[in-house]
Amino acid sequence: MKAVLDITRLLRRAAQATPTGIDRVELAYARHLLKGDAADVSFVARLRASTWYLDAKIVRPFIETQALRWRLSAARVTRRELSTIEQFLGQPDGSLAAGLPTTTLRSVLPDMLPPLQRLLSPVNLLPSLLRRHRNRGMVYLNVSHEGLIAPGGMRSLVRGQAMQPVFLVHDLIPLTHPEYVRPGDAEKHQTRMRTVLESARAVICNSRDTQMNLASFARARQMPLPPAVVSPLGIEDEFGSVDVPPHEGAPFFIALGTIEPRKNHLVLLHAWRALVEKLGPKAPKLLIIGRRGWENENVIDIIERSRTLSDHVLECNRLPDAHLRRLMRQARAVLLPSFTEGFGLPLFEALALRVPVICSNLPVFRDIAGATPCYLDPIDGIGWARVIEEYARPDSVRRPAQLERLSTFQVPRWSDHFKDVDQLIDSIATPEEGTSLLAGWLPSLDRSKAWTPAGGSVTGASSSSTLSAFSPHESSTKSVAVSSANDSWPGRIGA
Fold first, then answer.
1. Rounded to two decimals, what is the model's pTM?
2. pLDDT tens, position by position, 41-72
3. For residues 286 and 300, what is the distance between their CA atoms, to the nearest angstrom?
4. Distant-in-sequence contacts of 50-56, Cβ < 8 A, 24+ apart
């Protein structure tokens, strides 16, 4: 497996105490590649208009320190914060932290400066020409959208070393829903996707919905679509079965995600107002877990100023993963009322814990979770209130039915994702002698041919033109085609 991973984003985010979703993806890729043969793996970073070619041996300490720092940062919470949650949920004092690791103080977080100084030492410039030569013909992996707004620089990077670029596309939300991003982000993302289409040897999509949107983007601009493979992102092994004592207080639900317009917390707050007005003190409780994002003033005003909701809604901006997993297991359901999503890791995390999910009826959710969750229209406030009330009852019918579906649901792990990625890298970087690049596994690079959705058949292609990729809501793997060209989208997983 010969790959060069771009870790520009990890370096740029090194000082941050907590990772974003894309940070976690790039970190997972780095840790996976570092498990392999160091002679076949290299790294690159673009900082201050310079390109740094980095060997695995000097990248490893930085990656290990960053992973440890973020893991320990996730455990930073005060006893007072935990006590507030316990009182809100009617749990005994100290119960939330019982049996869990002690919280981490800022003073014990590992220092990022030493590994960064070693990584970016001028000494590493001396053998850079040798590293550049060794990178020739290898697969260049960019899994963070980093640097794609400078297409000239990207072309220079990959073409100068004859590398084969492969990009992971997370979503096209700035283009499909520009109203949910900051001004100017749509134009930037359009440049990113153009760079992908113009330079990619192959594309990894985290869902069929993402692949469909990328294909639509290409068709609208009459641009060829590179070969694409669909492989869901994985989740950490910690999100497995968690044994917790039963919750004896009032039933509660968890809304998980950054507090911003796209996450649609408003529909939940209005639903909860209706529940409190109907049920009074017996109404279930809502725990909103997530950082505050942007343009959320109306949501924050309701949370902080509504007297009706003060005893039934609590905002929690940070919570250690171990405590979050315990609360999720005790909740009646996890609520995800988003207007749009690129993937939905919280959905997978909840399903991995065997926690019921009530979520928006989004194509991407149906794509990755099939018929397992309970789907609702994101603007149907009355419907959300009705279903939440039903799930809160001890004699609920719908909740046990979803628990039954959850018992057979398979959640993808990072190991599943990387099986697909490794096969893709090997096919591009080390083709068999006497065959053209990507031949025998990827379909023809003639981009005028029709393409099919992942899981479909490729006309005229042999069985070796498909990749066994994980379909999370099914009991077995299925053949997922690597697709290319510009025809319409005939279907999706879970439809």
1. 0.82
2. 889 888 776 788 888 888 999 999 988 888 87
3. 14
4. 51/157, 52/120, 52/124, 52/125, 52/128, 53/128, 53/131, 53/132, 53/135, 54/7, 54/119, 54/124, 54/131, 55/131
Residue 324's pLDDT is what?
A: 87
Structural domain total, the chain: 1
Instruction: Please say whether the beta carbons of 54 and 124 come within 8 A.
Output: yes
Query: Residue 342 is part of which domain span?
Result: 241-406
Question: What is the DSSP track for 60-91?
Answer: HHHHHHHHHHHHHHTT---HHHHHHHHHHHTP
Q: If you search the block for the tokens 């041919």, which residue do you land on? A: 449
Cβ distance 309 to 276 under 8 Å?
yes
Positive/negative CA dihedral, 145, 147, 151, 155: negative
Does any domain span residue 384?
A: yes
Q: Is the pLDDT of residue 293 over 90?
A: no
Is residue 115's pLDDT more than 90?
no
Q: What value does the mean pLDDT take over residues 366-376? A: 94
Report pLDDT for 419. Answer: 93
pLDDT for residue 135: 73
How open is the CA angle 358-364-365, to the nearest 5 degrees? Answer: 20
343 domain residue, yes or no: yes
Q: What is the pLDDT of residue 93?
A: 84
Cβ 164 vs Cβ 140: under 8 Å: yes
CA separation for the pair 349, 89 (Å, rounded)? 22
Q: What's the CATH number where 275 sits?
A: 3.40.50.2000
Query: What's the DSSP call for residue 189?
Result: H
Q: Spell out a b/e string for 447-486, using b for 16 or more CB atoms within 10 Å of the CB, else e.
A: bebebbbbbeebeebeeebbbebbbbbeeeeeebbbbbbb
Q: Is residue 381 domain-resident?
A: yes
Instruction: Evaluate if residue 103 carries a pLDDT over 70.
Output: no
Per the prediction, the chain carries an average pLDDT of: 81
Is 175 contained in some domain?
no
